Amino acid sequence: MMKEIILNAADDVAEAISETVSEMAEEVSASGASGASTWDIVKGYIVEYGLRLLIALVVLFVGLKLINVLVKRIKKRKALKNMDNSAATMLGSFLGIALKVILFVTVIGILGIPMTSVITIIGTVSLAIGLALQGSLANFAGGLMIIIFKPFRLGDFIDNHTDSGVVTDMGVFYTTLTTPDNRVITVPNSLLSNATVVNYSVSETRRVDLDISVAYNTDTDIAKRLLLSLGKANPLSLEEPEPFCAVTKHGESAVMLTLRVWCKSADYWNLRFELLENIKKAFEAAGIEIPYNYVNVIEKRK
CA 131, 133, 139: angle at the middle one, nearest 5? Predict the structure, then answer.
């Protein structure tokens, strides 16, 4: 079906060109009968179509210049300045392509080529390309959604429950993440626009939650005071909201204490690692037991 539409449109264009050539031939033949100069007829066509070609070239040249200037000015507008560089570039490129397609159709009209057939060919080819590139178009649409809703920006640390890392590049079809261990992950924009994305960089502060188990014979008040003192003493922790500690669970072989300490987002991992190390040392010094599972093996002898 699609092939037939393209062939029919191409036949229409060829027929229009053939009719023009036939008209020229008829006028040349008629000129011989009327005594008019063949060169005069040919010259008339050269002037007519040469003028069309000249106008088309001028429109094409001026149009491309104006499109480039317009796209640059739009990118400099305040609304786009607040966007990420990659997002602004993506939007500017899309606008430039759309304007160039309109310019191309206009130039074809100036040349006298039947617009209906040309538009039919362009539309059919676009449909064929769209069907062949469904995944890429979905990624492109996802990129536009990211631009509009801005769930993350360049430099943000995000997690989509499959991959996590710092956003280092936002392309038309893909977004690039760099993981903490310096792996580079390329994620299709369609996945990011349709998935739940956790952005850890939006807020300036984060909370470190640590679950610490102690033996049932431990004085929980002493353990809580010790954990709170470690949380408050760390230079990376914030005074407000102040650290919090409470018994959160009675396990099978241990009592669970939860320590919550707020810090700047950039200090999250450093504070977490320091607290874990300091808690281990402080519990050992205070004689507080951190229980662990063990297995008793009973051997029966015959």
Answer: 125
Contacts 24+ apart (CB under 8 A), 103-112: 103/59, 103/60, 103/63, 103/64, 103/67, 106/59, 106/63, 107/56, 107/59, 107/60, 107/63, 110/52, 110/55, 110/56, 110/59, 111/52, 111/53, 111/56, 112/20, 112/49, 112/52
Judgement on whether residues 16 and 127 belong to the same structural domain of the protein = yes
Give the β-pairing of 164-170 and 157-159.
Answer: antiparallel
Residues whose CB is less than 8 angstroms from the CB of residue 50 and which lie 6 or more positions away in sequence, other chains included: none
CA distance 236 to 49: 77
Residues 32 and 71 grouped into a single domain = yes
Q: Decide if 297 is inside a domain.
A: no
Neighbours of 181 (CB within 10 A): 6
Give 37-74 pLDDT, tens digit per residue: 555 555 565 666 777 788 888 888 998 898 888 887 77
Section 99-112 average pLDDT: 82
Closest CA to 141 of 193, 214, 71: 193
178 near 166, Cβ under 8 Å?
yes
